[in-house]
Structure formats: C-alpha cells, structure tokens
C-alpha cells in the first residue's frame, strides 16, 4: 500500500481547536498578542514559527508538536502485523477513509471494523484467505464509514454491531453498552465509548495479535483528532481518559490517515503532546 497521507495539516488542527474553543479570529489574535494579519497568514498555511507557537499556547496545543507538523518533519513509524490484520484505504470525495479486517490465524474467525465506501476488496480478501466473517463492528455510522455495509453483511451473514447511542445503520443491527466484551476466536475485544464526533462513536480495544489494537474511528487521527461542531470538549476528554490510558504500545487504527501508535501520538499529536 502506498504511504497514506496524514488526515490533517497544521491549519486543520488550528481550526479544529479554534472552533472547539469558540474563538473568533479577532479574539484569538488578541489573546495570542499577534496581529490579525499574522494570524491570517498562519491560517492560510504559512508556518511562521514564532506566531504559530504563540497561537498554540492559547489553543491548548503543544507548540513543538504543532511546529513539527507545520514543517512536515515527522510521520508515524508503521507497525508490522505478520498475520491477522489488514487495512483498507479508499477515496471518499476529497479525502480517504479506512476500514479494517482482523482474524484469528488458527480458527480463521474474522471481524471487520467499519466498511469504507466499498467492501469489494475486503470481500476478496475474506474469500482468498478462507475466512469466516462473524462480526462487523461500526465505530460510527457516518456515510464514509458504512458505504459498503449492506454488501458486506449480505454476502457474509455477519452480525452488525454498533453502540446503543449511535443511529442504527442497518435494520437488525445489534447494539452494545460500554465495556462489552466480545471474542472472535482467540481475539478479545472491549468496547469503549469515545463519543463527541458522533453520539455513539466507539473505540474497540483488541488483544490477541502482534500488538494491542485500538480501532478509534474518527475519535483520533495521527497528529490530530476528529472534528465536532458541538462535542469538542467531550471528544477531547474521552480521548484523554479512554484512549490515552491504554497500554503505550497500542496501535491506533484510525478512521482516516495512517496507522500510528499511542506512544508516538503522546509525543507528536499537538492536542495531546506536552
């Protein structure tokens, strides 16, 4: 697979934080002690370091991590999964969206996490590897994450699961409460409600493969986090308490952008690095 671009650049991060804190450009410039012209230049994509760092402090962002992102100095080291894990990356409008397939190498029992816009490639892998797809777990039900759901569920007979707080994506879908435990062969999955981006946004924490895995949907991206017009503080708090408390070697399988790890995001994500 070709190198997957980061979901957000530094201007996206700035705007998400600014919207979340409900600060106008005028208010942000005044708080940061910078001119409106310098703020406009940074928000337009000019990485003026001194200005950027002043803005970062007033948006509760880590200045070093934000400057690093602005100059494209870092990209997450990609973890290796010899078996039992596949990532699918598909175009959706002007972005790309991820979905994932995991399986127990011994029993061939499998689960999907979201479907992306088209489940054709996932179905091909399921057939080629002789897998039995038992469950389709939805992180949330926004269109880019469930576009291939009907086809995948119909072709495999897999059960569809989503949070009890999330709008139902398919008739007959099953729901769960937080901290539900589900097994797929030797793989153990725990549900964590990381709401904010959507009413039932869920992170699935999985053990049993080469590394612990967290399928975070749009809760978190490498160097950024999901957007929300109303749930910014809720999303930020859930990310901190529920995702960043997971084991530090946890691999983060995000809804957009590349794979990353919790350890890397603790150092390089402007929202969470300190």
Can you walk through the features of this model?
The protein has 274 residues and is α/β, with parallel strands linked by helices. It has two domains: 10-70, 434 Repressor (Amino-terminal Domain) (Orthogonal Bundle), CATH 1.10.260; 85-268, Ribonuclease Z/Hydroxyacylglutathione hydrolase-like (Metallo-beta-lactamase, Chain A). The protein has ten helices and 14 strands. It has a six-stranded mixed beta sheet, with helices on one face. A six-stranded mixed beta sheet has the order 7-8-9-10-13-14.
Strand order of the largest sheet: 1-2-3-4-5-6
The CATH topology label of the largest domain is: Metallo-beta-lactamase, Chain A
How many DSSP helices?
Answer: 10
Assign a percent range to the helix content.
Answer: 25-40%
What's the Cα radius of gyration? 19 Å
Shape: elongated
H/E topology pattern: HHHHHEEEHEHHEEEEEEEEHEEH
- Which band does the percent of strand residues land in? 15-25%
- Unreliable spans are none
Q: What is the terminal-to-terminal distance? A: 32 Å
Strands, total number: 14
Based on the structure given, which CATH architecture of the largest domain is correct? 4-Layer Sandwich
Find the structural class using helix and strand composition: alpha/beta
CATH class of the largest domain: Alpha Beta
What's the rounded overall pLDDT mean? 97
Largest sheet: 6 strands, mixed
CATH superfamily of the largest domain: Ribonuclease Z/Hydroxyacylglutathione hydrolase-like
């Amino acid at each position: 697979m070709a190198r997957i671009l980061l979901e957000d650049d530094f201007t996206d991060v700035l705007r998400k934080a600014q919207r979340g804190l409900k600060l106008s450009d005028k208010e942000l410039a005044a708080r940061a002690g910078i001119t409106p012209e310098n703020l406009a230049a940074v928000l337009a994509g000019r990485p003026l370091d001194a200005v950027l760092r002043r803005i970062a402090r007033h948006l509760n962002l880590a200045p070093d991590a934000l400057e690093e992102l602005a100059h494209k100095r870092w990209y997450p080291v990609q973890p290796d999964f010899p078996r039992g894990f596949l990532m699918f990356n598909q175009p959706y409008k002007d972005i790309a969206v991820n979905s994932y397939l995991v399986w127990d190498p011994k029993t061939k029992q499998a689960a999907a996490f979201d479907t992306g816009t088209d489940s054709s490639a996932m179905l091909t892998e399921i057939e080629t590897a002789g897998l039995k797809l038992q469950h389709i777990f939805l992180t949330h039900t926004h269109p880019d994450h469930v576009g291939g759901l009907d086809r995948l569920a119909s072709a495999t007979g897999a059960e569809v699961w989503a949070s009890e707080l999330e709008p139902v994506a398919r008739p007959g879908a099953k729901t769960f409460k937080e901290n539900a435990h589900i097994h797929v062969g030797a793989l153990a999955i725990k549900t964590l409600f990381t709401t904010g981006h959507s009413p039932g946004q869920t992170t699935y924490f999985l053990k049993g493969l080469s590394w612990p895995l967290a399928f975070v949907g749009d809760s978190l991206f490498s160097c950024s986090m999901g957007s929300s017009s109303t749930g910014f503080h809720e999303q930020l708090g859930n990310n901190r308490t529920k995702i960043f408390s997971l084991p530090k070697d946890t691999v983060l399988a995000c809804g957009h952008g590349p794979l990353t790890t919790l350890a890397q995001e603790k150092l390089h994500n402007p929202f969470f690095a300190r």
